[in-house]
Amino acid sequence: MSLQSKLFRGDAKLEAAAQVDSAHIVPGARGAHVGKIQQALIELDGAKIARDEIYGPGTAAAVLAYKRKRNIINTAYQTQADNIVGKMTMARLDSEMLARESKPTPPGPIPPGPTPPPDPTPHLNLSFSMTDPSIYVTLEGGEKVFPAAAIKVVEPSSFLGSGKIKWADVSYSGKYGRFKVEKKGVEHWVIMFVPTGTNFFHKGHIFFHPTPVQVFPDPKNPSEMIRKIVADDKNYASFGTDWQKFAADYLAFVAPQLGAAKKMTLIMPMMRATASQNSNASNDVFADRPLETIEALLKAARLNLSDLTTSTDPTDLSGGLATSSFSNGISYHANLFNRISGSGKLLEAFDFDSTFITSAHKDISASPSGPVITRHTQFENQQSISTAVHFPKARWDAKAANAPEHLRKQTFPITKVQIHHLIINYTFHGAIAGSRILSG
After folding, report:
1. How far apart are CA 206 and CA 345, in angstroms?
2. Going by C-beta distance under 8 Å and a sequence separation of 6 or more, which residues neighbour residue 173?
3. Where are the beta strands (DSSP E) in 211-345?
4. CA 382 to each of CA 158, 358, 376: distance values in angstroms, whole numbers, following the listed order
5. Strand (E) or helix (H) holding 355
6. In the 8-state DSSP scheme, what is residue 402?
7. In this structure, is residue 125 part of a structural domain?
8. Using N-to-C axis directions, what is the helix angle for 87-102 and 32-45, rounded to 10°?
9. How far is CA 394 from CA 160, 163, 400, 406, in A?
10. Please, what's the b/e burial string for 353-384 (b: 16 or more CB within 10 A of its CB; e: otherwise)?
């Protein structure tokens, strides 16, 4: 008989385990089917385990405890319970989950006023208590491949000084994916990219995009400001076309530059506009247990985007972290910086041309100790920190033989607005190439 509970039914590996002895699920197994077993143990038995889809010692102990409480023993060859999920265990887990899912929720008091609309069908992975300590990271839509290709970047050796910048050609390849992070009933979206050849997952780089609400002067009336919603918070949960384009635009230039410079995971959290306005906002993916969340993300990248069978387990972030932001993304950046800068795990922070770092977020522009902070700016006179790197108009060599084609074809001088975008488009590689975090 096939499995009946919503959590288990239709899963080929679990269906097989319920019917065939050779398909038993044993310690060492990995995958979504293991995560479902972990979810059932958490809900049915109060198991204190993470839903990390790895049948490790903790999960094995939880399975054993579950079977002992229910005296699940095959008397044909056993005298005591074991830590394997076989036919008898799957049958018991399935029947208990079905009963749990079928139990009606008692109605609460009806508030005054119009009757509210019915609640949406609960998400299977969100049927946990609001105090659940688990952090669930799930790949949505499968892995995608960055093909090897050549890109133009600013040559790192030409960063310092006042002379014209030089250009370099680099190549990259790797895998990326969109991940859903679920914590305490709140969902977040994070894009991750793993360069080809990455085999150390105890370190990473976190890039914060600008807020999806952009404010800029009206070209027809500079004294008036235009507010443009690039990706609406209302559509965040569904991650619609605007959010997909927003993510793709930044991934397209950040990922290849990082991949060409360092072999480490890129984490790009897709942040709602409202998350930039409150350092303790519940819709900030790093507001709750930031370091544990980063570890869970790096582990998911290792499991889903790596071709390696063995690699460094990101359990202690001993390789170190780097963070960066661009423009008004500094708000998100500052939130995380202030939470983890004293942990010893954050080695450096980059600011790519944000005017806010000398005003609203001075806390990360003049840190006396801890992470090394580097600022890239188009303003020669903004020496907010000793490690500022300046890229004013006089330094951009658009006419160099190997400069990007669209710059070489340009007939008018580069403007400050263009420089603002050129910095993140072309200097990210050089900043990461000089990172304190080693490739090995």
Report:
1. 13
2. 145, 146, 147, 148, 149, 195, 196, 259
3. 213-218, 221-229, 265-270, 320-326
4. 19, 9, 10
5. none
6. T
7. no
8. 60
9. 13, 8, 13, 18
10. bbebbbeebeebbebeebbebbbbbbbeebeb
Mapped onto helix, strand or coil, the DSSP state of residue 57 is helix
Q: What is the pLDDT of residues 83-105, one digit of tens each?
A: 999 999 999 999 999 988 887 65
pLDDT in the model for residue 438: 76
Question: What is the residue type of 255?
Answer: A
Report the distance separating Cα 440 and Cα 218, nearest Å: 48
312 shares its domain with 227:
yes
Residues 6+ apart with CB under 8 A from 4: 94, 95, 98
Which domain covers residue 413, as residue numbers?
Answer: 136-433
pLDDT digits (tens, 9 = 90+) for 168-227: 998 889 999 999 999 877 899 999 999 998 888 889 999 999 999 887 777 777 677 788
Q: Are 203 and 350 members of one domain?
A: yes
Number of folded domains that form the chain: 2
Query: Helix, strand or coil for residue 357?
Result: helix
Token pair of 393 as six digits:
């108009």
Tokens in use for 351?
């600011």
| Closest to 315 measured CA to CA, from 345, 281, 340, 270 | 345
One domain, residues 69 and 203: no
CA proximity to 280, closest of 208, 211, 339: 339
Does the pLDDT of residue 333 top 50, yes or no? Answer: yes
Crossing angle of helices 416-426/241-261, nearest 10°?
A: 60
C-beta of residue 136 within 8 angstroms of C-beta of residue 51: yes
